[in-house]
Each structure stands twice: as structure tokens, then as C-alpha cells.
User: What shape does this take?
Amino acid sequence: AQKITQTQPGMFVQEKEAVTLDCTYDTSDPSYGLFWYKQPSSGEMIFLIYQGSYDQQNATEGRYSLNFQKARKSANLVISASQLGDSAMYFCAMRERGSTLGRLYFGRGTQLTVWP
Amino acid sequence: NAGVTQTPKFQVLKTGQSMTLQCAQDMNHEYMSWYRQDPGMGLRLIHYSVGAGITDQGEVPNGYNVSRSTTEDFPLRLLSAAPSQTSVYFCASSYSLAPRTDTQYFGPGTRLTVL
Assistant: This one.
């Protein structure tokens, strides 16, 4: 079974609107971290936001917020007030803290296009 | 801070050649790792290190070697390049593997083509 599932291959949003990118995860480890990364067309992987499995509140970083629903095993990224520069591939990732590998499991990504 | 740096940015090799991809970080991070990104396969862990002198294999280690002689540097060596190693390679680092300090920061990537 896939550890991280992103069901939206592509999403479109108009500038200044909000958009939600979906992410569900699968783990039996009670301690884990959830991460979102942005990969623009230039190719670099940019860290956006983090949520710990024991965190009581949803994480927020500027225009990014993470809608964490632990019982549903979902960690959706919400981008408010979209900008043209938000057009990129977005990856959800998870690290199971019971593993010493430190490995991040990545989803297949969602290509976000922001139009004027 | 420069963060995580990688060189070269692009490289073309012939089958059988060897080369080293360089990775360095100036954040005093203990944990460093190498991933490869392939279309349809996502990012896969090649090797990782939890500190100077300590390395171990990840998910897809065959054909690659690593060493960690200093905290800052974590080079990846391709021993005898094969077309299957054509990929984009990312180096990443985190302060540690403990909660709240295990966010991994990525370098800009190296795009490698093996002919």
C-alpha cells in the first residue's frame, strides 16, 4: 500500500483565490511527521510546512496552512490568496519516527496552475 | 547560510564512467541523505548518514557509494555509470531525526544523464 496518496494530478486556481491540495497517508507508527514541499519548474525542492502527529493545532506558515485530520489520516495543504508564483508541483511527504532510516515517503505530487 | 549546496548542476556521462556528486551543508546538520527522482517513481532514498563517519543504505543503494568524513560534506559516488542511473539527484539534510528537528532541506539537485 502506498504510504502517501495525492489523488489530484493537477489543480487549477485563479489568482487571489484559495486552493486545497489533498494528501492522505498510511502508517501504523504513532509518531510521524508530515511535510509539504514545493517544486517549481526550476527543479528545486522547497520546504513549506510541517505537522507532527502529536501536534494539537494545525500548522500555519504565512499563506500556507495544513488541515490535519488525524482520524482520517489526511494532511491537506491550503494555500490562501494564490499568486502566479505558486504555480508548481506540490509534494506531500511523511517520516515515520520509528524508523532509523530517516526516509521521507513522498506522494506522486499535484501540479498546481494559478491563472490570472 | 548557503543551506544545502550541490555540484554539478548538470552532468552527462558515458556508460561505465565514474563520478562524484558533491553535497555540502553549512547548517551543522547531523542527518544527510541522497534521493533520486524519476518520473512515475517519486523520490527514492539511496543512502543516508546520521553523523560523521556513519552511513547506511537506503531503498536503492546499488551502484552508489557514500562517505561522511565531515559533518558538512556527503558526496555520492557512481562507481560505473549505467543508463538506469539517469535521474535527478537530490541531497537533503536535517538537524537530527528527533521530532521537530527532522525537517529535511533539499539542495538544488543534479540532473544526470548516462548515455
